[in-house]
Each structure stands twice: as C-alpha cells, then as structure tokens.
Amino acid sequence: MLFALLVVFGILVLSEPVFAHRVLANSSITVATDKPFYIFGDTIVISGTVKTVVPGSTLTINILDPYSNQIKTTQVTVALDGSYTDAIEISGSMWKSGGVYTVLVQYGSTIPTQTTFSYMATTAPINDVFQIQIPGRQTFDVPYTISGGSVVNMYVNPSNFMLVVSIQSTNYGSITLSLPRSLIDSKANDGTDDLFGVLVDGVQVQPHQKQVTASERTLTIPFLQGTQSVQIIGTRMASQNVSTVNTASQNLTGNQLPQITNMSNVIHTVPEFPSGLILLMIALITIIVFGRIMLRPFHVNG
Question: Maximum CA pair distance of the chain?
C-alpha cells in the first residue's frame, strides 16, 4: 500500500512541473518555494522579489490547503533591493490533508501572485513517558517517541523476561524506547551487552540501537500499518521482589535471532491449496472423455 501511495505521489509531482518555480500572475511580484514537496516537520522557505518597493508596506503570504482553506498567514518585510524571504514550519493540527497546496503572495494593492507545492500528510510524532508499575517495586519511567501510531499500553512479563508494548498503528512508522536497565536488559554470558530480541506482531525484527548509557538503552523499532504488539525480550528483568536473571539464555535474544532488516519484506504467508493441480486433472479427464466419444465408430442400421 505504501508503495502505491508513493507511486501516486510521484505521478502527482511529475504532473505539476511548476513546483518550486515562480508562477507569475503579474510582473510586479515573483514567488518560489525551495522544494517541490514536503512532509510534516519540514520547513518551507518562500522567497521572491518585488518590482517596486513601497516604504512601510509589508508583504502578505497566505498558504491554502487543497480545499482552499487558509491554514497559515504571515507578513514579511521587503528588503530595499525588492527581495523577501520567509520560513514556515509545517507543524500543528492544520496540516492534516495531503495534496497540492497554494502559496498566495500579495504586496500592497498589486495583483496576488501564487505558486504551489505538494504535501504528503503523515502522523506527527508523539513524545511521552509511560509509567510501568511492578507490585512491590518502584515505578519505572519509559520515555518513548512514536510516529505512525500511538501507544495503548505497556506491561512486563517477568517470567518470559519480556516488555510488551501495545500500539495502535495507523501508518507505517517506528517507536523509539529508552529502556531503563533496572527494568529490562540483555547481557551475554561474559557480562557484555547483548542484542534484545524483538517481535513485531510475532515477527522477529532487528531494532536499531541508538544510544547506550550506564543506566539505559535506547532502541528504535520499525512497524507496519496495522501492527498491534511490540515485544522486547531480554535476559534480565525486574520482578515483584528482586531482579531476575535469565540463565537459560532465551532463544529469542541476542545473536540467535534470525534478523529481518527491511520491514517491507515481511510477508505473512498462507499455505496454498493445490487447486491448480486439481483443475489441470479435470481438464485432462475432460479431453480424454471427449476424445473417445469423437473417435467411436458410427453404426448405421441397414
């Protein structure tokens, strides 16, 4: 699905050759954007020139969404040489529709000038801290950042040395977790850090370890649209009474994991019933039967 969206988006961009170029409604003002398309969090740099500078006058920039709704308005001071520049960050709840956006520029009583750009709507990242309470022990804070969804719940399964993160994913995305070592950790037999085992809806994936300190380890885990569960498996975990150690070295931790580095290659396969073979046999039997009928000698009654 993501590939299809990207193809459509590429066709849309290629079909609009005016992106990031000046579109002149008159010869008094020019306007351009620094890029042809943007995503949430990008900064749009709008620049251009004014033919006749009027002291004390400001230039107004309006951005309209694909449905002509005004989502941003700014005013810019024009330099003495007639040039102007403004930077607008794509943030907030107004940027919710993907498509072709219009930049409308007006200076004084001149006729407005416009240009367009494409915007691909994505889910704004969520930064939060989830508190995990283990009976008989302290509360553990787990900071996280998730894009493409939201965190529904987090809980531990000490008997399996597992941290379970329940999510609601509305798009392809990733979650970054800062895991306290006092809550969960993964160690090799020699005491050095080992890789965590990670399952995304039961499929083994390789996380990206972004940061390691004496007190925590930070992992980034990609997921697909529709993902509901992320399971992180270690060798040490805080339980109700004391920190337990997985001396058996769980099969789903460390380098024993078959790693999948590209989530787009994860395909849930279903055993195929050999229906093609049955159809072929039926066709062969039909040919044989009709062949015998056609070759049977005709009897003429005398």
Answer: 119
